[in-house]
Amino acid sequence: MRATKAIVAMAAFAAFAMVVAPASAQVRIDSQAGDPDFLSFGVGGFDVIAGDFSSAAFQFEYASQKRLWIFHPITGLMVNSDWGGDAYAGVAVDLFFGNRIVVTPSFAPSFYWRGSSKNLGYPLEFRSAIAAAYRFDDRSRLGLEFYHLSNAGFDDHNPGTEVLLLKYSLPFAQTH
Question: Which of 72, 108, 110, 118 has its CA 20 to 30 A from that of 163?
Answer without folding.
Answer: 72
